[in-house]
Structure formats: C-alpha cells, structure tokens
Amino acid sequence: MTSLKYNDLYMAVDFVSSGALLDACAYICRETGKIWYESDDSFEEEELPGNVSDTNKYAEVPDKRDLGLGKPLALSFVSQELPNQYEKIESIFRRRGAYSRLKDLLHDHGVLDAWYKYEESATHEALCFWAKEEGFGVQPESDETAE
Question: What mean pLDDT value characterizes the chain?
C-alpha cells in the first residue's frame, strides 16, 4: 500500500479547493504517491503524465466540498455549539464572504477555538477515510516531524 504524508494530502486538497479562484486539480500516483498539480496558472507545475486520467494509476484529489468539509460541517458545528444561532449562520452562507462572517460570529460567542479544533478533527478524519477508500495509507503528522 502506498503511503502518503498527511500534510502533503492536506495541501493537495487545499490546492484543489482553491478552484473557485483557479481551475485546480491534483492527482496522486497510486504506485509512488507522487502528487501532480494542475491549474489555470500552471506555469510552475510539472507537466502532467499523459495517463493521469487512468483511475487505476492515479487518484484525483477531491476538494473540501466533496469531502463534506464546507458549509455542512460549519452548520453541524453550529447546531451543536450555538443552536440558537443556526438560522443566522445558515443565512450567512447565502452571500459571499461567509467564512469570514462565520468566524466573526463564532469569536463573538467565544467558540472560535472550538471551531478550529472541530474543523481540524473533521478534516483529518475525512482525509484519512478518503485515502483509505482509494487504497492509500496516511502517515500521521508525528511521523513527519521525526524525519
């Protein structure tokens, strides 16, 4: 089983999730674990292998929305921590700049640090689950600091 460094996987998902600004994709070679990046602003990325669309050889990295890490995660947190603010938060997501306003509201209610921990835990769980489903192992962050 090919093993991936958690931070490398996290960065690839973050890159793909920036797709609102750029058309961004990332692919992981199932044999080597090498991550290939592609975007509209691809002047610094290596040229993709010609067979990158072969799902037997490469896995396409999902974005945060595909992993349920966007609005649904925020609403789940709010329903647990600030249920009386649920409708207000839901309405925040109907406009641009939702995450900035969400964080301001969470800060005002003293739960911003709890949100960051919740989001980090959910992200870790989602990335490890996705990797396992795709046949990859994930090296814990603590292994990376030992290198």
Answer: 90
**What single string gives the DSSP state of each residue in 91-127?**
HHTTSTTHHHHHHHHHHHTT-HHHHHHHHHHHHHHHH
CA–CA separation, 90 and 127 (whole Å): 25
Instruction: Determine the angle formed by the axes of helices 112-133 and 71-81, rounding to 10 degrees.
Output: 130
pLDDT for the residue numbered 42 = 56
CA nearest 18: which of 36, 46, 34, 41?
A: 41
Other Cβ atoms within 10 Å of 38 Cβ, number: 18
Q: Residue 143 pLDDT more than 50?
A: no
Residue pair 83/33 in contact (Cβ under 8 Å)? The answer is no
pTM of the model: 0.85
Q: Domain boundaries in the chain? A: 2-63+132-141, 71-119
Residue 66 CA to residue 126 CA, distance in Å, equals 10
